[in-house]
């Protein structure tokens, strides 16, 4: 069953829009400021592959933290889609992407492991060099709506196919 909103925008057949994304964490050791329960400050994020704003594609992101955190389900309603916290332990995040209404009505669930300590444990941890763990992926939207296609046609984070010149999509003039 289609929602009424979905029917108002025609779908472009045999067209795919690809959105390269990066999701991951960056963790900083707090050094002298560290306590037993808060040794690191970290940020988890979802962004364009070159740090572009994904707001035209993503409506909100839900980060599911470890249950030991206060309010472990965190909702970020607008870009930048990131969340910062302090803690001492490593754990796996569930990251749920919810798309703009004319993009896709299904959520996309990603998983990412927070790493606080560098691979080469060669002694003391540095406060100057963060631990960064990232994953690259591409979200592909087959047969996109005309409104989605028109909105992201010139967006730097979105890969949109070149349409033939005979293809007439009434785009709003800038």
UniProtKB/TrEMBL annotation:
<dbReference type="InterPro" id="IPR038704">
    <property type="entry name" value="YEAST_sf"/>
</dbReference>
<dbReference type="InterPro" id="IPR005033">
    <property type="entry name" value="YEATS"/>
</dbReference>
<keyword id="KW-0539">Nucleus</keyword>
<keyword id="KW-0805">Transcription regulation</keyword>
<protein>
    <recommendedName>
        <fullName>YEATS domain-containing protein</fullName>
    </recommendedName>
</protein>
<dbReference type="GO" id="GO:0005634">
    <property type="term" value="C:nucleus"/>
</dbReference>
<dbReference type="InterPro" id="IPR055129">
    <property type="entry name" value="YEATS_dom"/>
</dbReference>
<dbReference type="Pfam" id="PF03366">
    <property type="entry name" value="YEATS"/>
</dbReference>
<keyword id="KW-0804">Transcription</keyword>
<dbReference type="GO" id="GO:0006355">
    <property type="term" value="P:regulation of DNA-templated transcription"/>
</dbReference>
<feature type="domain" description="YEATS">
    <location>
        <begin position="11"/>
        <end position="155"/>
    </location>
</feature>
């Amino acid at each position: 069953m289609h929602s009424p909103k979905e029917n108002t925008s025609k779908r472009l057949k045999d067209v795919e829009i690809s959105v390269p994304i990066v999701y991951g964490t960056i963790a900083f050791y707090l050094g002298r400021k560290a306590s037993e329960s808060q040794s690191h400050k970290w940020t988890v994020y979802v962004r364009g592959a070159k740090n572009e704003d994904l707001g035209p594609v993503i409506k909100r992101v839900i980060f599911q933290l470890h249950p030991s955190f206060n309010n472990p389900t965190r909702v970020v309603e607008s870009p930048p889609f990131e969340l910062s916290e302090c803690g001492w332990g490593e754990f796996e995040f569930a990251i749920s992407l919810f798309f703009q209404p004319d993009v896709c009505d299904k959520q996309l669930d990603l998983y990412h492991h927070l790493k606080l300590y560098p691979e080469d444990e060669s002694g003391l941890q540095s406060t100057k060099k963060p631990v960064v763990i990232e994953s690259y992926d591409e979200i592909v939207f087959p047969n996109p709506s005309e409104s989605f296609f028109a909105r992201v046609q010139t967006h730097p984070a979105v890969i949109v196919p070149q349409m033939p010149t005979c293809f007439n999509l009434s785009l709003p003039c800038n």
